[in-house]
DNA sequence: ATGGCGTACACCGTACGA
């Protein structure tokens, strides 16, 4: 079984690349962010024709999250929620669903698009911290009833200076500020583990590169997309990596997929 | 200090992003 998260930066622009990548990698469940599309305009038929079920929580122009799940891997998909329960928000940044897997396991997955925050101290920054606090409370509740849980997405947080190509310039700034890193630690304290900590990774491995100034070619990137999971998932994880290949295509998303392989035979 | 690039909506430029 393979689970991936990918900020696609407009699903209408990227559907062909995403479907090609799913076909190449045989990914079981893909968590998408920044679909930037109303649910009725999501290219659902193309995903279904490729053998995936799709669940969307979208809006016009901005934000938007979605799940694509291989139909043959699940008996049912249940308890779908759009946005954080109890946290009303016009911005669509979370979708979760429980996958009743063909092997009998129940796995809850959540795709999250964390607010960017714009600048430390800005209104959008306060919203970011408030949103993460609400998410953390929700994660605690979910973990109490769903032992197999994965939270993946574009966190818009670089957990350590090693996750920035130029940490000196980002010290204390948005994506790297102490309150954001403390919020990250709070998510782990709620009962999640960072899948990345399980693997051996080359230094300067990133998940996002600016479109400008040939940042990808120079590997001027950041690692801000993550897969967290409960221990019951992490203990069965074989590998985790970032697939930078799609970033080198024509008209790419500025983010690359983060992928985890779990030993369950699906 | 700005823009550098890309996307969306719909203006023929603005908002937003990380």
Give structural notes.
With about 270 residues, this protein is α+β, with helices and mostly antiparallel strands. About 25% of the residues lie in helices and about 30% in strands. The protein has 6 helices and 14 strands. It has helices spanning about 10-25, 45-50, 125-145, 165-170, 180-190, 230-235, and strands at about 1-5, 30-35, 50-55, 65-70, 75-80, 95-100, 105-115, 150-155, 195, 210, 220, 225-230, 235-240, 260. Strands 3-4-2-1-14-13 form a 6-stranded mixed beta sheet. Helix 3 (about 125-145) packs parallel to helix 5. The longest helix has 23 residues, at about 125-145. It is globular, with a radius of gyration of 17 Å. The structure holds one DNA strand of 18 nucleotides.
Gist?
This protein is α+β, with helices and mostly antiparallel strands and 266 residues long.
Features:
266 residues; alpha+beta; 6-stranded mixed sheet; 6 helices; 14 strands; 24% helix; globular; DNA-binding
What's the total number of strands?
Answer: 14
Looking at the structure, what is the overall shape?
Answer: globular
Cα end-to-end separation: 5 Å
The computed structural class is alpha+beta
**Low-confidence runs of at least 5 consecutive residues:** none
DSSP strand content: 25-35%
What string gives the helices and strands in order?
A: EHEHEEEEEHEHHEEEEHEE
For the largest beta-sheet, the strand count, sense and barrel status come to:
6 strands, mixed
Mean pLDDT, to the nearest integer, reads 97
Radius of gyration: 17 Å
């Amino acid at each position: 079984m393979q689970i991936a998260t990918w900020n696609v930066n407009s699903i209408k622009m990227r559907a062909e690349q995403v479907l090609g990548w799913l076909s190449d990698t045989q990914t079981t469940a893909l968590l998408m962010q920044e679909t930037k599309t109303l649910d009725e305009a999501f290219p659902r038929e193309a995903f279904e024709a490729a053998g995936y079920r799709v669940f969307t929580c979208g809006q016009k122009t901005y934000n938007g999250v979605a799940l694509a799940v291989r139909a043959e891997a699940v008996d049912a998909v249940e308890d779908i929620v759009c946005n954080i329960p109890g946290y009303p928000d016009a911005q669509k940044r979370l979708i979760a669903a429980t996958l009743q897997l063909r092997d009998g396991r129940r796995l809850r997955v959540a795709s999250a698009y964390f607010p960017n925050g714009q600048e430390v101290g800005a209104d959008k920054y306060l919203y970011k911290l408030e949103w993460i606090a609400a998410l953390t409370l929700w994660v605690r509740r979910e973990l109490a009833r769903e032992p197999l849980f994965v939270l993946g997405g574009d966190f818009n947080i670089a957990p350590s200076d090693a996750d920035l190509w130029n940490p000196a310039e980002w010290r204390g700034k948005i994506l790297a500020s102490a309150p954001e890193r403390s919020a990250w630690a709070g998510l782990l304290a709620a009962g999640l583990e960072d899948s990345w900590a399980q693997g051996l990774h080359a230094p300067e491995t990133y998940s996002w590169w600016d479109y400008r100034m040939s940042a990808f070619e120079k590997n001027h990137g950041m690692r801000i997309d993550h897969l967290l999971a409960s221990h019951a998932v992490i203990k069965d994880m074989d590998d985790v990596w970032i697939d930078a290949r799609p970033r080198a295509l024509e008209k790419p998303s500025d983010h690359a997929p983060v992928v985890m392989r779990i030993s369950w035979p699906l």
